[in-house]
Amino acid sequence: MKSKKLLLAIPFLSFVFISSMMSQNVGINTENPQAALDVNGDIIFRTGDLLVGDSTTLALDVNSTKFSYYRISGPTADFAIAGITAGTDGRLITLFNRSNFIMQINQQDPGADSLNRIITGTQADIFVADRGIVNLVYDGSEQKWVVKSTSKGIGGTMWDTTGLNIFLNNGGNVGIGTNTPSSPLTVQTDLNTVGISQIGGNDEIVLSSAVGNVSASIGTSTNHIFSLNAGGTGKVHVWPDGRVVIGDDPDPINFTGGGSSSRTVPTEAKLTMETPLNSTGWMHIGGPDSIIVSEVIGGISAAIGTSTNHAFRLTAGTSGKGIHIYPDGNVVIGTNVQGSFGRLTLHTPDNSDGFAHYSSGGILLKTIVGGVSAGFGTFTNHKMRIFANGVSVINIAPDGNIGMGLENPLAGYRLSVNGSIKAKEIVVETVGFPDYVFAPDYSIRSLGEVERFIQLHHHLPNIPSASEVEENGLAVGEMQSKMMEKIEELTLYIIELNKRIESLENTNHQ
Question: Secretion signal: which residues (predicted)?
Fold first, then answer.
């Protein structure tokens, strides 16, 4: 069927109206309309002003005066639109916010009539800044207004087809799995599930994060090193077996310490710190006095302690007892209160052990301080030795015998001395001192018997011979008694001789 051509002439307006009996298409400035309305040129939709009050509007009236484009004005503060008066299916409107305040479009506000409610498409309210635009269409099936689009403004929008996964709120925060992001990027997951994951490289290294019931983690979930970078290079490296390396080189086995030489670190070391020589490894500054504790490694030594004028303490438990090193070099063990009495001070309760040295051979040397005494020595069945110039000069046997100048004290003698003894006085305790010589029943040898004994044995009776003394030594206490016995016997001989002399003198006088 042929189409009819109709030319209309209206003052100030002319257009060609083409009507196809089959297609019913209408063309403006075109003779071949391709749609129900085909306009060859621009279209002007007249705009209207729409006054809105403060607070929340439950039914914005777009039906009393119908336009497709409304300029919103009137509020004196931020305001909200909870509903728009219902339209016919497919009606399009644009709201241009020129109120100088933020316009909030509420998501299906229960305060509005069901037919007037708005579906924002974000499952949340959206916000349109001043001079921002929101486009809406009325959906006859939903019987609600549906937001088609908004200008950038500060609106909240979902980025996925379900409207549930990625959300950008009015503050510029992005939420993944949540529509209430509290930071520039917030990831919401179930417990014990991966939050962020990155896969890359030829080995498909996986970097991921996870949050559990009582902990959170970030790192590689494949058998690769996890590094924390600063200044473009890795500074902290965590190995899959749990070892941690702090420094430029992530390898804890063979690395260069400050570029000087190659070092080998034991594989069991859980924390390895790589620094140049004579530099600090780690440091802790704290307290009102800014106390600094740090460690440093030099060319041939290593150190840990305070680098300020404060004591360095090694403690265990809450008692504060431990090892306390003071700036003057004195060390106190066992207390944080008692001052030092020398370079090394041990503080213990009464009758308790202090210093102890235990060898692999089972020898135990220790000190002990009691209420009124103190001591040190072996506490196993071994000798106690005192050295001078690397030589053992005093040896104390487990049975209490003491040897001076002897490696092994002589059995049966409390004190054995290999050398001379000088003393101002020696007191020897003995039993049976020879006063028995003066007893009436004491039988004393005659001088003749003594003479014959001497001629035969070449020493006094009851006195050891020279060979016996050389072989067995001289028992001082016993010899003193024997010598006193001889002195007392000699006294008796003198008394007897004196009597004979007096008797002879008396005889001669007569």
Answer: 1-23
Please give the order of strands across the beta sheet that includes 352-358. Answer: 352-358, 364-369, 374-378
Q: Put residue 133 in one of left, alpha, beta given phi > 0 → left and psi -120 to 50 → alpha.
A: beta
For 214, the domain range is: 190-267
Section 72-95 average pLDDT:
95
Q: Could you give the CA distance from residue 152 to residue 129 in angstroms, rounded to a whole number? A: 8
For 381-397, what is each residue's pLDDT tens digit?
999 999 999 899 999 99
> Is 107 a residue whose pLDDT tops 50?
yes
**409 near 416, Cβ under 8 Å?**
yes
Residue with tokens 């089972």: 362
User: How many angstroms separate the CA atoms of 339 and 332, rounded?
Assistant: 7
On the question of pLDDT at 81 being above 90, the answer is: yes
CB pairs under 8 A, 24+ apart, for 254-258? 257/297
What is the phi/psi pair of residue 505, to 5°?
-65, -40
Q: How far is CA 284 from the centre of its chain?
A: 12
pLDDT attached to residue 474: 85
Q: What is the overall mean pLDDT for the chain?
A: 82
For residue 414 the two structure tokens come to 């409390």
Q: Of 216, 245, 267, which marks where a domain is finished?
A: 267
What is the rounded CA–CA span in Å between residue 309 and residue 299? Answer: 24
Tell whether 57 and 130 lie within a shared domain: yes
Domain membership of residue 399 (yes or no) is yes
Question: What is the tally of structural domains in the chain?
Answer: 6
* Domain membership flag for residue 456: yes
> What DSSP character marks residue 469?
H
Q: Are strands 193-200 and 205-211 parallel, antiparallel or unpaired?
A: antiparallel
What are 155-199's pLDDT values in tens digits? 455 554 444 567 766 667 887 777 778 888 888 777 777 777 777
- CA 347 – CA 353 distance, rounded (Å): 10
For residue 408, being part of any structural domain is answered with yes
The whole-angstrom separation of Cα 413 and Cα 410 is 6
Q: If you count DSSP H runs as helices and E runs as strands, how many of each does the chain have, helices first?
A: 3, 41
Both tokens of 137, joined, read: 């269409």
Structural domain ending residue among the three candidates 208, 238, 267:
267
Same domain, 207 and 118: no
DSSP 3-state of 470: helix
Contact 382, 363 (CB under 8 A): yes
Average pLDDT over residues 39-62: 91
Task: Look at 316 and 92; give whichever has higher pLDDT.
Answer: 92
Say what the pTM is: 0.47
Residue 8 lies in a domain: yes
